[in-house]
Design goal:
By secondary structure, the chain is mainly α. About 40% of the residues lie in helices and about 10% in strands. A three-stranded parallel beta sheet has the order 2-1-5. A two-stranded antiparallel ribbon has the order 3-4. Strand 3 (about 185-190) and strand 4 form a beta hairpin.
Length: about 220
């Protein structure tokens, strides 16, 4: 949809509605020495087509992670999403007008989550698989809480040092009210030492958290 700018009449009507006479009145509480006091140093305005071409040229200067070998770590990994995913997710039975965050979560979302979790469990042989979590940090915390609930072990959680430090901080915050001991294993050459892992686990451990690929890529 094309951008429709506000006309001078629109501005005057808005100013009158909020009870000021000019745009400058809106910023009078900001000290004068903190204001720019001049127009922004921008190039002349472009037409829509010209601007689109210009932006495309600027974007073309970037090198995306998927266009070259990527060893950045920290979550900057190559990701591949099969073409079938977009097609399946766009089918009418998978969604409704509701967002998945409302109590009236659509039956289509529930069905898609169930199908995904069932497939992952069958492919990996795991007992459970989570879905529809916001990000890696909250997903990590939810997985740990689920493990604690399933095992009834609240005493200790072991975390590989290669786990994203922000994920570890989130997990620490989640566990603060449980009194659970969070053990972080040292990083050896970018990964966890198997003997350290074995030595850290005991009958009171709820789970071991690892990340693959880890924070170091």
């Amino acid at each position: 949809m094309p951008y429709q700018f506000a006309t001078e009449q629109d501005r005057q009507e808005m100013l009158a509605a909020i009870g000021v006479s000019s745009v400058e009145d809106l910023f009078e509480t900001i000290p004068a020495d903190m204001r720019l006091g001049r127009p922004l140093e921008l190039p002349p305005a472009m037409g829509e087509l010209e601007l689109s071409q210009h932006i495309s040229e600027l974007v073309g200067r970037n090198l995306a992670a998927g266009e070259a070998p990527c060893f950045l770590g920290g979550g900057c990994y190559d990701h591949f999403i099969p073409a079938a995913v977009d097609h399946i997710a766009a089918r009418g039975e998978w969604y409704t007008s509701y967002t998945p965050y409302q109590p009236e979560v659509s039956q289509g979302n529930l069905q898609a989550m169930f199908e995904y979790q069932t497939l992952i469990c069958r492919l990996t042989g795991m007992d459970v698989s989570n879905a529809s979590l916001y990000d890696g940090g909250s997903a990590t915390a939810e997985a740990v809480l689920m493990a604690m609930s399933a095992t009834k072990r609240l005493g200790k959680v072991v975390v590989a040092g290669g786990l994203h430090p922000e994920f570890r901080q989130i997990l620490k915050t989640y566990l603060a009210g449980y009194g659970t001991k969070l053990v972080t294993l040292p990083v050896a050459d970018g990964g966890a030492d198997l003997e350290d892992v074995k030595g850290s686990l005991d009958g009171g451990t709820a789970c071991l958290v690892i990340q693959n690929p880890n924070f170091f890529g």
